[in-house]
Amino acid sequence: MELVLQFTYNGLYFFYDGWLIFDLIIVCVSWTLSTYQVIRAFRIFRALRLITRVKVLKNLVVALLSVLPRMAAIGCLMGLIFYIFAVMFTSLFKDIVFSDGESYFGRLDYTLFTLFQMMTLDWAGIARELMAEKGKGWAWIPIVTFILISSFIVYNLIVAVICDAIFVLHDSKDEGDDGCNSTSSHEDFDHMALKRINEIAVQVRMLQDNQTTIQKNLASLSVTLKDLDVYKNELTSLPPQDMSDANLE
Prior knowledge:
The protein has about 250 residues and is mainly α. Helix content is about 75%, strand content about 0%. The protein is built from eight helices and no strands. The chain has helices spanning about 1-10, 20-35, 55-65, 70-95, 110-120, 125-130, 140-235, 240-249. Helix 3 (about 55-65) packs across helix 7 (about 140-235), helix 4 crosses helix 5 and helix 4 runs antiparallel to helix 7 (about 140-235). The longest helix has about 100 residues, at about 140-235. The chain is elongated and about 155 Å long.
């Protein structure tokens, strides 16, 4: 029902979201396999949907997916190391039968499985039985060499790659947050600058209106003064008797 609602809301964009496709696969697989009695336990795969709900888990999965090429390169290196030591151990110890009656290095596939067991640091018993054989007291040398290379160097290299991916993801997240804060500050600055520009524009218009009013008043005053000068000149040009009459008026 949730997937139907997601498809109704997103439409065809549903198939462009990797996390929704992941949900679809998990639900369909668990639902389909639940009809079989033997593999009904596969319904537990639905618990993987928690990855899409918890942001920390999603970031971890993204980090792991981002280092898949380097992990593949390390895996190839590990496979090459396993093959070299498997051929070496098979050639050196293929005739040795252990106390439980098994030949751990009788064939190449047996040797590969034994090397995987030793890589998990369960190697002391195997090394002691090999060293107990006549003329095999040096058997600890290739075993310790393999343990150092596989368990301590390559394994730690894998951990370093994963930690580096998580560190890069954390840095990109911080840069994204800084970018958001910087964008917000720029928007605030632009808003304040625009507000200040509008205030200055209003003041400039007020000054222009005042200047226009002053110019009109000066023009009116100039006309008035000119009329007074003309009137004064007319008074001075009149005879004394007419001037006294004009002054009375």
